[in-house]
């Protein structure tokens, strides 16, 4: 069954980031394009979804099945773009959470392994091809991500080159009207000190079992960064190997959230778990049918244990209810890696202390960058960063919803 066009996600194709990049340089390069896309989508009468696809040579290795990634570099790029999305959305008064209601924009950042040197020979037939990471090439993206409401493309030489290559690869996947193809202004992208092609950043070994935890209430850009960073660590086995990688996500149980601000508006555990899996499906699900008629991923739901499988069963996601500070990290011995934020760094140390006491191996701990407005804006000082953090938190979203409900009650 066809889906109404305004219920489909939109695409923003962003050309290569500055090299090397920093948050101020990302701001200069991407702010105009992101602002234009968000400004158009916020006028929708429904909640909008936006896939921000960033082309960059993020993987290394000669052969498809032996690709590696620099996790610190990749997650830092994603953190910078989610910071920009959050800053712009805050300035434009756009809600950013999943299912945020009319005028909201639920954005997802996807890295596309592509460079200007990548060539698709004339007459070649693109195919969906996976490697041992979750990052896909441009051809795979074009074939698996469709159809779209709008396609925003950057009005610059690299932006137009990327756009034309994408359209060629996506040919036949969707009949697009002229009004759906929206050019947007690009920013200033400088290669301030070109990298030595022979010098690649330190590569991060893939992990068979990755774990992280959180509340994930009103899933917002900070949550999306954390979940994406964890997924980037997965070592994805080949389709017919009989093996699989596991992504275990501990989600705080309802009982532990009763003392939160506006606790009555905290989403039930089941809603939060479903939203986590729905978000991850945007990064992990690949099919030549695209969005499959708008269907959400198949989730096996049990009390406090939601599961889903992606990429022919090579990636298994499990959301479990947690009732303490440790969750699955001290209940599942086979976990290899733990992803934390700066706020939960001490929790990572406590987890490893506990595992050692149990006679288990320590987890490799990976710390994700923070969303920091100070690094993306000209105005400096702690107040701006603190205000920004407050605006994108789950507590702030609940406060906004409480205010909205108060207004509705007054009208009645």
UniProtKB/TrEMBL annotation:
A biological-process GO annotation = coenzyme A biosynthetic process
Superkingdom of origin: Eukaryota
Q: Where is this region: Disordered?
A: 376-412
Q: Where is there biased composition of kind Polar residues?
A: 382-397
The molecular function terms of the Gene Ontology recorded here are: dephospho-CoA kinase activity
- Which PANTHER family does this one have? BIFUNCTIONAL COENZYME A SYNTHASE-RELATED (PTHR10695:SF46), DEPHOSPHO-COA KINASE-RELATED (PTHR10695)
Mind telling me what this protein is named? Cytidyltransferase-like domain-containing protein
Organism ancestry: Eukaryota, Fungi, Dikarya, Ascomycota, Pezizomycotina
